[in-house]
Amino acid sequence: MARLTTQFICQSCGSVSPKWMGKCSDCGEWNTLIEEVVETGKKKVDSIHQNRISATPAQKPSTLAEIPRKEGERMQTAFAEFNRVMGGGIMKGSLILLGGDPGIGKSTLMMQVAGFLESGKETILYVSAEESVHQVRGRAERLGLEKAPVLLLAETNLNEILVHARNIRPALLIIDSIQTVYLPDISSAPGSVSQVRECTSAIMTLAKSEHITTFITGHVTKDGSIAGPRVLEHLVDTVLQFEGDRNHHFRILRSLKNRFGSTNEIGVFDMNSRGLKEILNPSEIFLSEFSQGITGSVISVTMEGTRPILLELQALVTNCNYGFPQRNTNGFDQRRMTMLLAVLEKRLGVPMGTQDVFLNVASGLKIDDPAADLGVCTAILASFREWSVARDVVFIGEIGLGGEIRSVSAIDQRLSECAKLGFKRIVAPKSSLKEADLPAGIEVIAVTHIQDVFRQMEDWLAGISM
Ligand code: TYD
Ligand code: MG
Q: Quick one: which ligand is closest to 138's CA?
């Protein structure tokens, strides 16, 4: 007979423990165990299986060649950026999770995707489990989409939602959000680990059995993972993350997992009073505020997925007045910067131990491409020495612990993006340039060690300002 008992589930890895512990014994994270009431005493899965085994299975395996290719399987939206991040459109019948901080614009993006489906004829069911239909209509009106063929439903009971979806059979189903819907059969509260997991798997069954393309939205927790267990990410086909600084108007859509396309692709959007607008040339926008004459600012180019993006790196180096030197970064890994500071100190003899160092990736982008190392080091050096770097120079290169400048990926794309935007001089690792296609009209300066850069720095300055 079924019985209710209490157990503790780790929010980070999903492992179950019979008693509360400060630290998860599986993943080692602290304070992630959450109490939940679950049903126990159900029939053992094994015995259920034993009864159902049949000698003639319904399906037989086929060879790869026997399986026909399917074309026209993707839906296009009017957002080229969105299509690209999805791997060339939304794969029909897939389940996609859109994660992001509260208030970042998930509901807005979903409404715009629904309103801008290219065919414009298919039925879309938008289920809001957070807002009333009036609120959703108000948003659609603001976005100029009040005439879009979208059916609205404000409902939190997932069983009801599934019945509606089966009856309507929409081309696109949007459930906003996974943390506010619930299955009445599960006793824990909406948003709890077991609710989120069971709801997602019920939605997955619907998406696959009825071939309904489904989006679910989800809030992310403080540490950046999608609330609820990590298992959620394994359940769905695609995980998109919508990020950005709420004080900035840029929003970045990133694909973290994609069964139907490459990951690490990003799409850049601008949030204005009439919703999201895609930015097709992010480099131009990110550099628009770069002004020559400021010390400690340099331009570098980072690869985001398959796309090169030029951006401005700003450093501020000041005398340390409070004993322990500050190291602060925004948009760049702090530990990596600390390592680069040690390289500058050891290989160039720059006394970083007595300086506070602040680093900012302008425009709110977060980068983890090591090719930005050289840009970071030059920005720090430039701020320390009060140098203002010329506006037409770009710095590319990974820096090793010996101060050597190591090769970077996708050098051709990086160089051609720089040439396209009118940059004249590019400082790049010698080892990368051997087989590179050098675009016409630009001077490429090959460097092998951070000392080479330091020696030639004067050539690339706009003037010494104080
Ligand atoms: P929303 O889509 O509700 O965020 P989420 O679903 O991720 O919680 O968007 C919330 C923010 O976006 C809100 O602060 C207002 C802003 N916004 C605009 O700036 N312009 C717009 O056209 C819309 C609809 C929202
Ligand atoms: Mg919302």
A: 1
One-letter amino acid at 439 equals P
- Residue 415, SS3? helix
For tokens 């109490």, the residue is 35
Question: Strand pairing partners for 45?
Answer: none
Question: Could you tell which of 98, 101, 108 is best to mutate to test the pocket of ligand 1, judged by most ligand atoms within 8 Å of the CB?
Answer: 108
Query: For 165-205, how does the pLDDT look when each residue is reduced to its tens digit (9 = 90+)?
Result: 999 999 999 999 899 999 999 888 888 888 888 999 999 99
- Per-residue pLDDT tens digits for 126-174: 999 999 999 999 999 999 888 888 999 999 999 999 999 999 999 999 9
Residue 455 pairs with which residues in a beta bridge?
A: none
CB 267 within 8 A of CB 253: yes
Q: What's the chain's Rg over C-alpha atoms? A: 26
Q: Give the residue carrying structure tokens 């026209």.
A: 72
Beta carbons of 421 and 405 less than 8 angstroms apart: no
Task: Please give the model's pTM, rounded to 2 decimal places.
Answer: 0.77
Please report the atom of ligand 1 found closest to the CA of residue 275: 22
8 A C-beta contact, residue 220 and residue 106:
no
**SS3 readout for 128-156:** ECCCCHHHHHHHHHHCCCCCCCEEEEECC
Ligand 1 contact, 105 CB (< 6 A): yes
Q: Is 103 in the pocket of ligand 1 (CB under 6 A)?
A: yes
- Asked whether the beta carbons of 426 and 415 are under 8 A apart, the reply is yes
Q: Which atom of ligand 1 is nearest to the CA of 104?
A: 7
Place of tokens 């951006």: 311
Respond yes or no on whether the N-terminal peptide bond of residue 177 is cis (omega within 30° of 0). yes
Q: Residue 342 above 50 pLDDT?
A: yes
> Is residue 99 within a helix (H) or strand (E), and if so which, with residue range?
strand 95-100
- Listed in sequence order, the residues at least 6 apart from 266 whose beta carbon sits closer than 8 Å to its beta carbon are 85, 252, 253, 254, 304, 305, 307
CB distance 138 to ligand 1 below 6 Å: no
For residue 143, which ligand has an atom nearest its CA? Answer: 1
Distance 94 CA to ligand 2 centre (A): 21
Task: Supply 322's token pair.
Answer: 């409070």
Burial status of residue 438 (CB atoms within 10 A of its CB: 0-12, 13-18, 19 or more): middle
